[in-house]
Amino acid sequence: MRYAYAITAALLLGGTTLALTSHSTSVIAQTAQNEGTAAAAPQGAPASLADMVEKLQPAVVNISTRQRVQVQNPFAGTPFGGLFGFGEGGPQTRQAQSLGSGFIISADGYVVTNNHVVAPGARGATVDEITVTLPDRTEYKAKLVGTDPRSDLAVLKINADKPLPFVKFGDSSRARVGDWVVAIGNPFGIGSTVTAGIISALHRNTGGAERFIQTDASINQGNSGGPMFDMHGNVIGINSQILSPTGGNVGIGFAIPAEQAVPVIETLRKGQNVQRGYLGIQISQLSDDMAESLGLPKNRGEFVQAVESGKAAEKAGIRAGDVITKINGRTVTPDETLSYIVSSLPVGTTVPIELVRGGKTVTVRATIGERPPEEELANFSQQNPDDFSDQDEQSTRQASQQLLGLAVQPLTPNIARQLGIATETRGVVISAVDPSTDAGSKGLRRGDVVMMANGQPVTTEAELGKAAQAAKDSGRNAVLLQILRRGSPPIFLAVRLRSQ
């Protein structure tokens, strides 16, 4: 802005100088720059969105909840227990509210929103009342028909004495990056608000099994659950998330595509629970280091870290260390993730799964199971391990001389007991890690157990060194290690060789 002002000032001074030195007495007609000017709309886009918005806005609603929250008394048992509005010694029930957006999808009053808009906002909270407010400020008490936390969708029902305005879904599979979109919602509770932008990306994965439409149309807190429209006025997405370091809009918003949302919404409208496919494996992305250690191409396939006992993957013969590259004919990529593909498969169907094991392609067949509740899945996740004792200087020097930056020794039953792992475990235990190597940067430490290297069991320092040297001789810069740490299941980790 400083530079803009400086240029303007220079132009004004130049104009003054010309006026002082000119001897002409003729009158020059003055015309404003913006007089008679109208911007041309891009080809295929309307000159204004007003007519379309005027028809759509009545079907977009505000959603609010009234909740009760149990607040613990931090002064319980002290002389201050009855102060600050708390009951003597016990927890206090407080009122809370949440605000969001939604839209009506049928004349008889079915409403779609995000699950997090109508879900309890804190542990132990209960939702007493849900209110849907139309743009004309008419309020209705809503019934919660169904929710699906994994897709972050919810369906409500309101009863009116007349048909309600509603909108219909479009085909999000035909959306393209660069298409114009319009978002309508109620950000910050200030009232119905319209923003416009373009589709910035498709199939955006934010860490789960779902994929999103990314847009630069302004989405802020309170827009959640509101519709994203295409230029034909059809709902192609449901605004759900924003990416922001400040909590406000920075031009990166995410909407649930209609093609994913509609089947879930129809299931919830029928009062049914949403079923998703499940294999029973713990997976990780095939990182560059891991792909190099296995001699596989990047961005194709996902790595099996662990297999859950008794589930579909184990029954099909899938093992920890496999790389799944294709399932039911669909290639696994960063856009088509394994979780996304599996969750969309019907429970009970048997599908072929192509995987890489020991450098060879293997095909197995698995019968898709049903995804368990999220609480049960939490038991199959890795735990936060405890730290181990510090390593000595001599061991550190020894580690710095190894290709992997690791000093190791055979794992004996006595050491296994000290580490708190099964005495029958086979491998080598890390006695020191060179912190300047990739092993150090990836968190390996004294007390970790190396069970395998590039698919082969290792029980001595020589076997681990041989695996590292073999990788180097074959032109690979990383070795895939299977690591066991106390309190956690074994995981596979690709470790780069020390720079020469």
What does this protein look like?
With 500 residues, the protein is of the alpha+beta class. The protein folds into four domains: 53-157, Trypsin-like serine proteases (Thrombin, subunit H, Beta Barrel), CATH 2.40.10; 172-269, Trypsin-like serine proteases (Thrombin, subunit H), CATH 2.40.10; 277-380, PDZ domain (Pdz3 Domain, Roll), CATH 2.30.42.10; 393-496, PDZ domain (Pdz3 Domain). Helices cover 19% and strands 32% of the residues. It is built from twelve helices and 27 strands. The chain has helices at residues 2-21, 50-56, 115-118, 258-269, 288-294, 312-316, 338-343, 374-377, 393-400, 413-419, 438-441, 461-473; strands at residues 60-71, 92-104, 110-113, 126-133, 139-141, 143-148, 153-157, 180-185, 193-204, 212-215, 227-229, 235-242, 253-257, 277-278, 281-285, 302-307, 323-327, 330-331, 350-357, 360-367, 369-370, 406-410, 428-433, 449-453, 456-457, 478-484, 491-496. A seven-stranded antiparallel β-sheet has the order 5-4-1-2-3-7-6. Strand 6 (143-148) and strand 7 (153-157) form a beta hairpin. The longest helix is centred in the N-terminal third of the chain and has 20 residues, at 2-21. The radius of gyration is 31 Å and the shape is elongated. The protein starts with a helix and ends with a strand. 35% of the residues are buried. It is an enzyme of class 3 (hydrolase). Its EC number is 3.4.21.107. Pfam families: PDZ_2, Trypsin_2. InterPro entries: PDZ, PDZ_sf, Pept_S1C_Do, Peptidase_S1_PA, Peptidase_S1C. Belongs to the peptidase S1C family.
